[in-house]
Amino acid sequence: MKTTAGIARPIRNGVRPRPLSPTTFERVLAYGSILLLCAVLVAIVRGHSDWNRVPVLVWLHIATIGLSLALTPLLLLGRRGVRRHRVLGYVWVASMCATALLSFGIRSGNRGGLSAIHILSAITLTQAPVLAWHAHLHRVDAHRYTALSLVAGALLVAGFFTFPFGRMLGRWLLA
Questions:
Q1: Suppose 72 and one of 33, 53, 64, 162 were both cysteines; which one would form an S-S bond, judging by CB atoms 3.0 to 4.6 Å apart?
Q2: What whole-number distance in Å separates Cα of residue 109 and Cα of residue 168?
Q3: Strand (E) or helix (H) holding 142
Q4: Residue ranges in 2-105 assigned as alpha helix (H)
């Protein structure tokens, strides 16, 4: 058996599995997650005078997304296939699902209706459990692809779009 990062992974049908160590793309996503978390925290601190006007639902949404952003580098850069990765991964999935669910209650930016960003919430609610299922079944490549897709799309792209267009965090950050 070929070992990668101390974990035995058999070569099946002459195909060598991808290594468990982080790729360049995974490092970029991890550091992007750190930068986005920093931007969110700076925006929150700068918007302190408006805190009392922010609905509880929005604070819960920010808290769950903050947890996901904080866990992402630990999961992408840390050792994989170990108990710590599994536990943090399940917490990440739960946090992403909670974030997506909470987003459906936040409609102030679109005159009370759903917006295009809610499409990512629906995708997250379907794909986050799939991510956990792939991990449970040890489908490493499918798990990795789903995880990277969710981090890139549902976390970083959606997170980036919380700053422009006069949205609350963007106003706070640039105030």
A1: 33
A2: 9
A3: helix 140-149
A4: 24-46, 56-77, 83-103
Residue 124 vs residues 82, 119, 120, 154, 167: alpha-carbon distances, Å: 24, 9, 6, 6, 22
> DSSP character for 54?
S
Q: Give the 3-state secondary structure of residue 49.
A: helix
pTM assigned to the model? 0.85
User: DSSP characters for 106-133?
Assistant: --GGGTTS--THHHHHHHHHHHHHHHHH
What is the distance between the alpha carbons of residues 152 and 91, in angstroms, rounded to a whole number? 18
Q: Report yes or no: 135 and 116 within 8 Å, Cβ to Cβ.
A: no
Place of tokens 């999935």: 93
Residue 10's pLDDT is what? 58
